[in-house]
Amino acid sequence: MTDDDAAFPPLSPTIAASSPTGVYELIHALHAEILEAIDTALDWDELKSPTVNYTVVRPIVARFAPTDDGSGSPRSSLGAVLYACMANRIEFSELADNDLSYQPLQQSRAEFCELLAIKLLRTFPNPNDEEGLASQLVRQWCALDGAPEDVWRRVDDREEAAESKSSALDVAIVASAKRFIAQPVLQHILQEIGNGNLTYTPQQSVAVIRDTYVAPRQSHIRLPTDSDDAPDSSMSIAHAEAEAHGHDVEVYRHNPYQTGWLDVGRLRVPRWRHAIEFVTFFVLLILFCITLTNRNLGHITGLEIFYIIFSFGFMLDEFAAMRESGMLVYFTNVWNAFDLSYVAIFLTYFFMRMDALYHHDKVQSDRAFDILACGACFLFPRLIFYFLKNNAVILSLQGMIVTMVGFMCMISIAFIGIGFTLWRLGTPLWTVNKVVRLMFKIWFSKGFSHDDAVSINAELGPIVLTMFAFLCSNMLFSMMVSMMTSKYANVQKNAQPEYLFQRAVLTLEALRADSLFCYIVPFNIPAAFILAPLSYVVKPQKMHDINMFCIRLTTFPVLLAISAYERHTYRSMRRAIRLSERGVHQKVVKSSFIGTIMGGESTVIRAAFDLAPAVKMGPPGTPTKDLERGPDLKPEAPERPEAPTRGASKLARLFSLAPSRTRSDSVTSDNGEPVVILGAEWKSMRDTQARLENMLTTFMSASGIDPPPAKDKSPSKKGSMNVKDESK
């Protein structure tokens, strides 16, 4: 947060009194402000101009900036204000899509909401309080909180509406606020959450296995302690705020030595969640290949049974992810469509295979395996995208696939009329399958023969097919290529925000509140059928104990491996460096085998930066002593510091934010003797001025302009009198 952005004018009593206190009022108050402020279409650069910033943006930010009043209301919460900005962005974007006549204006208002969110994010009072900022960003809000009673009466299902909550980050992803998500402070928070340094459990009401009970031991772990391994002092700010507002602390900094070896919460960390998903998908791919290689048409083998069970566990995991994240967030990651395509192919194979085994039909069994083999078209590319998911080409390919599929669906619907015409003209020789096959051949530039056109209809067949071929080869194909090229260029131009947006989607998508995701496939199947009904009849504490026991029983090798790696990394980053009075001495530690593989040198370098000495960032001097001595006393001579201190920054010197030294300090040495300075600089300046005058005289002479008479540079009395006479 810069000083320029933080220096907002104080609120007037009228504005402060009219500030909204509920999320519902906050959304509509912000909506009214934006409607009044933005009444013309502006692009992003114009919205960021200094004129708009000082006249429009700053007054609105000054009004809606969160205040630290200790009330716990949405007015004092940064997360609620950001939630309101993103909600208004969604509303204006929908208005832009529905009304083309005002689309530029509504789109400008939607971008203005994103700009306000960026400015408001910089008003967070404690930028170093990562836990507090993360708590604000992930806190759940309902759009109808604080709404009047008559508004609630018009809601069909009040309980469901009250439980439909989402955080500012979730709404930002739905709103496609890529510039907001690309902010460095936000990406830093997401990176800390993704790596597991900041830990929290999102609250969801649609979990299959609901386990919201927090054990007292876990609550004690989350509290700050006075030990050396405890989180920094900034964490106490978040805890104090939570205790004052009556909320549980959602975000805390993870310390592997304060948790047990079987910490179930590490299975929710996006970093380990992605690793488990990759291993699960790789095992599924191996079982898929082995099942197709060793097919048995008459009987089902044990390996095929295990593959079917494993695939059902994979399908249950995808279904739970879609149910918890929602369709919009789930399909934001385009590769989830590949997973659903495989699920559809697997279900088709399963039902055909079971029916064939029941009726002892080997032909249908062979057809079922052929359909299953089509799943390789989606599984193998999905495996590659696990390694290249952050590549700009992959991001472009995602957008191009979406563009091509949408264009193909539109063209297919448009060409239904031509297909129906050809079918009716060629009846009974031409069936629907033959007509569709012929149209696909023409669409992919295979052409058609004159005999086919005549066989459909001697008079109208050639005309209809020629028109269709002209549309496909010349117009539609060129349009599709142009659209895909434009999409590729657009993604390449905005590759960095797009990549950061996709990373945010993957991070938040991996954070699951449902305990079902803590079970590794295929153990999630019995957990869903046993523990899900049990959660409705058992007390929360008992349900928590049963759930934790089952998770640790089925995943204890994974939990032990994660804890061992995190403890080794945590210890390696804080060892091997000692500070003493004479200097810095590196402690020689024999590198272990794991440390050698993981890169011991990099851990020591990271430890050097983690144990960096504190640097005083304050101003070089303060007027405290002068104020204490009184205004009538002369200021004392400046004390010489015992150690070199860091001076003011360039901006501080430019704007005179720090007191400058007196002339006597700059021209006298420590022992009081005069020092000759700037002699060479003055001589160089005079020489430069003489060269410029000579160049100007030469130029004016070449242009036919009489140069001014040269003045006598000697400091004589006569010369000075001549200058006075000329001035008269």
Secondary structure layout:
Blueprint: H1 3-6, H2 13-17, H3 23-37, H4 44-47, H5 50-64, H6 78-98, H7 103-121, H8 130-138, H9 149-153, H10 158-163, H11 168-174, H12 178-181, H13 184-195, E1 198-199, H14 216-222, H15 234-245, E2 252-253, H16 270-293, H17 302-325, H18 327-330, H19 336-359, H20 362-373, H21 376-387, H22 392-414, H23 416-426, H24 432-443, H25 450-456, H26 461-493, H27 495-510, H28 524-534, H29 540-572, E3 577-579, E4 584-586, H30 593-598, H31 600-610, H32 624-629, H33 650-654, H34 663-667, H35 679-702, H36 717-727
Helix pairs in contact: 3-6, 5-7, 6-7, 6-8, 6-11, 8-15, 13-27, 16-17, 16-21, 16-27, 17-19, 19-20, 19-21, 22-26, 23-24, 23-26, 25-26
Keywords: Membrane, Transmembrane, Transmembrane helix
Biased composition (Basic and acidic residues): 625-643
Protein name: Receptor-activated Ca2+-permeable cation channel
Concise structural overview:
This protein has 728 residues and is mostly helical. It contains 36 helices and 4 strands.
Please tag this protein with its features:
728 residues; mainly alpha; TRP_calcium_channel; transmembrane helix; two-stranded antiparallel ribbon; YVC1_C; globular; LHD_YVC1; single chain; disordered C terminus; 63% helix
Name the strands of the widest sheet in spatial order. Answer: 1-2
On the 0-100 scale, what is the average pLDDT?
A: 74
Tertiary shape: globular
Number of helices: 36
Strand content: under 5%
Number of strands: 4
Approximately how much helix is present in the residues?
Answer: 55-70%
Gyration radius over CA? 36 Å
Distance between the termini: 58 Å
Low-confidence stretches: 1-18, 220-249, 576-609, 614-677, 712-728
Reported for the largest beta sheet, the result is: 2 strands, antiparallel
Structural class: mainly alpha
Protein name: Receptor-activated Ca2+-permeable cation channel
Region (Disordered): 616-651, 699-728
Domain Calcium channel YVC1-like C-terminal transmembrane: 281-572
Transmembrane segments: 275-293, 299-316, 328-352, 368-388, 400-423, 460-477, 516-534, 546-565
